[in-house]
Amino acid sequence: MTETLTSDDVATTAHSTPPIRPEYELPLEPLSAATVDKALPLYQRLWQNAWIRKSVILICLALLWEVAARLQGNELLLPPFSATIKALFEDIASGVIPDRAINSLNVLIKGYLAGVILAFVLTSLAVSTQIGRDLLSTLTSMLNPLPPIALLPLALLWFGLGQGSLVFVLIHSVLWPLALNMYTGFTAVPETLRMGGRNYGLKGLRYVLIILVPAALPSIIAGLKIGWAFAWRTLIAAELVFGASSGKGGLGWYIFQNRNELYTDRVFAGLIMVILFGLLVENVLFRQLEQRTVAKWGMTR
To answer: What is the average pLDDT score of the chain?
Structure first.
């Protein structure tokens, strides 16, 4: 038995079936002279680079320094930028500044790494147990407002005239701000990620490393940057107050020694080296770390 379709059935079927739009491709038009003329000029394209803008700012600051020193006319109080750069290159060529910088970086790396490890241990305990949270909250409330330099007399009493005293104050300067940032990042991890880790049976250190650390990486990197800045400032200040460590002085001791001998140009040369190390770590090390992790993963702009 065959079915016959009425005109109403054909109309209903045609209405229910959506029409198929034909595909087509439009050819691209060649660039005209007017379109080429709308391209940005070379100087505007160069200005889009951040390092060029920052270099221009530094050059302007150097020119202002040179003009102010020439107008002031007393090199003992403010040497010109040109004289400071000359003293800087002389001490770099003689090996004085490289030796001082290596001594400072040696102490800094020891104290910074020890502070990072302790901060990770404390924060892992805080996100895993209630007693860990209470311990971290109590210690940060007590010790975070305490200036690291205030602990220097105790460090000298406990660890003597050596690197141990400087490492102790560096650990204090790194530990608490980094722990606070890490804990803030861990607590901001979405509950769905936490539940996913628990469903896979992750506990303890594996849960922290696999779930919490990648999700909280922007806060962790921010804490690492803050801890680095605090550690670098604390080290230079401690060397200015404390002096040489085990007979090996750093950049702070270099600044202090030249201040006593009234070599103001070399004092400013030491300060420039401190600034350059800060810029190098901030714009190379941490910038590369951010680009290869949180920026690549779309976790930050």
So the answer is: 81
Q: Which structure tokens are listed for 30?
A: 């060649």
Helix (H) or strand (E) holding 294: none
Fill in the DSSP letter of residue 78: S
d(CA 231, CA 147): 12
What are the contacts of 157-161 at 24+ separation with CB within 8 A? 161/245, 161/246
Q: What dihedral angle (degrees, nearest 10) is formed by the CA atoms of 183, 189, 193, 195?
A: 70
pLDDT at 60: 93
3-state secondary structure of 248: strand
From CA 73, how far away is CA 70, in angstroms rounded?
A: 5
From 242, 224, 247, select the one nearest 166 (Cα to Cα): 242
Average pLDDT over residues 210-214: 81
The helix/strand/coil state of 126 is helix
DSSP 3-state of 18: coil
